[in-house]
Write a structure and sequence with these properties.
Blueprint (H helix, E strand, L loop, with lengths): L6 H14 L4 H13 L12 E2 L7 E7 L2 E7 L1
Antiparallel strand pairs: 1-2, 2-3
Pfam families: ParE_toxin
Protein name: Type II toxin-antitoxin system RelE/ParE family toxin
InterPro entries: RelE/ParE_toxin (IPR007712), RelE/ParE_toxin_dom_sf (IPR035093)
């Protein structure tokens, strides 16, 4: 399994950081770091999380990282 970030996901992370950094640079960095590290566990546990059946036949699962949601798509 390979972990790939979509351009939309990367854009969302950048926008989130830009928004949070106005209030707290350390909090913005921690939040983005948490969200980017969470999907790494999917490399060893690809069936972790709630399966989202509305995306069948693709296998898409949702995991939570702090206050954010990360979706894992398997073809």
């Amino acid at each position: 399994m390979e972990l790939k970030w979509t351009s939309k996901a990367l854009s969302d992370l950048a926008r989130l950081y830009d928004f949070l950094v106005l209030a707290s640079k350390p909090a913005a960095a921690r939040t983005v770091q948490s969200l980017t590290q969470a999907p790494v566990i999917l490399l060893t546990h690809p069936r972790m999380g709630e399966q989202l059946f509305q995306f069948e036949p693709r296998e898409v699962r949702r995991i939570f990282a702090g206050e954010g949601t990360v979706a894992n798509s398997r073809w």
